[in-house]
Structure to design on (135 residues):
């Protein structure tokens, strides 16, 4: 019966290939449990996953802005900057949770703070311009 070879892992500290059957990394002596937890299993898979995460973020925030422009045009002054922050964090930097938190804070907390001023001044002028049926 042929022997099965354990796949090599890459140590996150010293970037040495470590057989999964070893007790620790031969270069830095990091325990194999930590090497398994933090090791990259291949550049192609992690690169592809990162690309999928970024593209998903771009599509998600573009869809949010499009839906908001269609259903809630008065919310665009809050949604567009929040979506820009989400795209920057999720789509560019690859941090989906941080992008989602920034989006929620800008869409929920900012209007709550600015609620007393929403009916007067520049916000009402902007809302009137967005809701203008001529465009």
């Amino acid at each position: 019966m042929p022997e099965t070879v354990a796949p090599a892992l890459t140590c996150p500290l010293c970037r040495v290939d470590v057989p999964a059957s070893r007790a620790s990394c031969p270069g830095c002596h990091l325990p194999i449990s930590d090497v398994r937890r933090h090791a990259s299993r291949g550049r192609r898979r992690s690169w592809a996953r990162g690309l999928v995460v970024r593209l998903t973020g771009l599509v998600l925030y573009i869809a949010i802005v499009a839906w908001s422009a269609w259903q809630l045009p008065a919310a665009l002054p809050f949604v567009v900057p929040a979506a820009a922050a989400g795209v920057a964090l999720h789509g560019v930097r690859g941090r989906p949770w941080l992008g989602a938190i920034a989006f929620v804070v800008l869409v929920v907390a900012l209007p709550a703070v600015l609620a007393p001023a929403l009916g007067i001044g520049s916000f009402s002028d902007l809302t009137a311009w967005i809701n203008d049926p001529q465009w």
